[in-house]
Design brief:
The protein has 160 residues and is mostly helical. The chain has six helices and no strands. It has two domains: 39 residues; 74 residues, Cytochrome c-like domain (Cytochrome Bc1 Complex, Chain D, domain 2). It is rod-shaped and about 115 Å long.
Length: 160
């Protein structure tokens, strides 16, 4: 037996023609480029969605308050809104119950004190338009002034 006839069927490595090799490389490049293009377009699409969402986001809100709700007492509003400064006298605020500090302010009258509270004065920012309505702020003003010797009447609920 000749060993030649057996080895002739197996010639070693399989041969791929150059045109087949270029075809395989081109297909691989097309697949990679296509994948990158799809991932880029999906990123661009999500960026576009984000951009649209940013352009149409809310810039404000409207709150409808129940006009029939009970007004808060002056003491409650004082504790929630005013005590941070008026309890300690921070930033020059007259301390709660300090008759000497409140006396010149009380002499200006309730309307002047309420105006200062609603619009702000010196280091105190405007209290109007916040969590408490003007009547509630007025009640807190009366509560603080009366604790220092004033005899102001507590403001009643407005009639609509």
């Amino acid at each position: 037996m000749s060993t030649n006839s057996h080895d002739q069927g197996h010639t070693g490595k399989s041969k791929i023609s150059k045109s087949d090799l270029w075809l395989i490389i081109a297909a691989a490049v097309i697949i990679v480029v296509g994948y990158l293009d799809l991932s880029k377009s999906s990123t661009t699409f999500s960026n576009a969605e984000r951009d649209v969402a940013e352009r149409i986001q809310k810039v404000g809100s409207v709150q409808f308050r129940d006009g029939a709700k009970a007004l808060r007492a002056g003491e409650d509003v004082y504790k929630a809104q005013c005590s941070a400064c008026h309890a300690s006298g921070a930033a020059g605020a007259p301390k709660f119950g300090d008759t000497a500090a409140w006396a010149p302010r009380i002499k200006t009258g309730y309307a002047s004190l309420l105006n200062s509270a609603l619009k702000g004065k010196n280091a105190m920012g405007a209290q109007g338009g916040g969590d408490h309505n003007d009547t509630e702020i007025g009640r807190a003003v009366v509560y603080m002034a009366n604790a220092a010797g004033a005899k102001f009447a507590e403001p009643a609920a407005p009639t609509n």
